[in-house]
Amino acid sequence: MRIYLDHNATTPVRTEVADAMLRVLRGVPGNPSSVHAEGAAARAEVERARERVAALLGVTGAEVVFTAGATEANNTALCAIAAGRPDGRRHVVVSAVEHPSVDAALDELARRGHPVTRVPVDRSGRVAPDAVEAALRDDTALVSLIWANNETGVIQPVEAVAELAHARGAWLHSDATQAVGKHPIRPGALPVDLSSLSAHKLGGPKGVGCLVVRAGVPFAPLLHGGPQERRRRGGTENVAGVVGLGVACELAQRELPERVAAAGRLRDRLWDGVAAKVPGARRNGDPAHVLSNTLNVTFPGTQGELLLQALDLEGVAASAGAACASGSIEPSHVLVAMGFEPAEARATLRFSVGHGNDESQIDRVLTLLPDLVARARAAGAP
Ligand SMILES: Cc1ncc(COP(=O)(O)O)c(C=O)c1O
After folding, report:
1. Atom 14 in ligand 1: which residue has the minimum CA distance?
2. Per-residue confidence at 382, pLDDT binned at 50, 70, 90?
3. pLDDT tens for each residue of 205-216
4. The predicted structure's pLDDT at residue 323
5. Which DSSP string do the residues of 270-339 spell out, in sequence order?
6. For residues 173 and 364, what is the distance between their CA atoms, to the nearest angstrom?
7. pTM over 0.85
């Protein structure tokens, strides 16, 4: 049996989600835009899912725009909505620890002539609200701040930054992809204008997510096409995917307190064991503001990619930084932004627990790690 400790890369689809999707794939053939009974049945599925997503986030269904995942949601927030502010504001402020889907969208905005300011983080991975305040200008259109980082799990002061942004007339976008379903967040209860999420990070399918757009924020579509999603996102809805997202959100709402507690127990067991058994191991990220499922550890003197391969051969899946950066020898930009030397960043692994993990799996990893780290150290750092 393999041990999967990479839930921040993606999560296994929950059985309840797969069952609901299969029911729709087999029994709901209509196009939600069609007016006949088959169309109406598909429309009802989409709208029920929308209400489930909205309930988890504390927003109204009308604020939920389904997308093909968080990358599309982030691109819509930045390259369409922020770029098209009716008052002509063009400056964008962003943290130094965003996901590549935000960073690359900002690179595109910069190419189109938008001024972009990147705000640094401290050694613990957090942005100081003061530093964001100092970066705000009279022409700031939007501040984008990741809610919880995918590599370190560090949770940012989203509410404080949103208030500062609003005080200067800027909108706040948060990439909430890692926080939703793992941490009790309610974007609807905060002054957050735009938030992104993705189903596959909370037990749903890949390729579907949404952008939540607060009522009153002038919308500009990224994908131009038919009138779907109230003319906010062209293209026939991914009905089964959207239904899967809805069920994943409903499960999250029901299970969240226990989910957070269970993940925290496993994560702490793993860290306590590593601290006791692996000399020199260092935990990264602010432990007071971190997702309960995420452990980011540096094993000085090792090459993280080799350690990862050794774990994989022993049946353990973990990650060295962001999944989309794996295979690249570039050190994680998140850890570099936190002040890590490249060699330290390359000696760092991320373990992220979730549904399906238990104590015996953590204990098995703890029996393997000391020896694998010693061997990786003998092989030498890069
Ligand atoms: C913080 C964050 N934002 C965005 C994404 C992209 O999500 P998707 O795979 O749905 O495009 C991910 C996942 O890779 C992520 O962790």
Report:
1. 9
2. low
3. 999 999 999 999
4. 46
5. HHHHHHHHSTT-EEES-TTSB-TTEEEEE-TTS-HHHHHHHHHHTTEE-BSS-GGGTT--SPPHHHHHTT
6. 40
7. yes
Helix, strand, or coil (residue 73): helix
Question: Are residues 362 and 321 in contact, defined by beta-carbon separation less than 8 angstroms?
Answer: no
* 57 CA from centroid of ligand 1 (Å): 18
Give yes or no: 249 in active site. no
Q: Which two tokens stand for residue 140?
A: 């700031």
- Cβ–Cβ under 8 Å, residues 61 and 249: no
362 vs 339: CA distance, rounded Å: 29
Say how many Å lie between the CA of residue 70 and the centre of ligand 1: 5
What is the per-residue pLDDT for 322?
44
Cα of 332 from ligand 1 centre, angstroms: 16
| Sheet strands (E) in the chain | 3-4, 64-67, 91-95, 116-119, 140-144, 171-175, 194-198, 209-213, 282-284, 294-298, 316-317, 348-352
Atom of ligand 1 nearest to the CA of 68: 10
Joined together, the tokens standing for residue 58 give: 């504390």
Name the phi and psi angles at 126, rounded to 5.
-105, 150
Residue nearest to atom 7 of ligand 1 (CA): 70
Pairing of strands 116-119, 91-95: parallel
Q: Please name the helix (run of DSSP H) or strand (run of DSSP E) that holds residue 360, with its range, or none.
A: helix 359-379
Pairing mode, strands 209-213 and 194-198: antiparallel
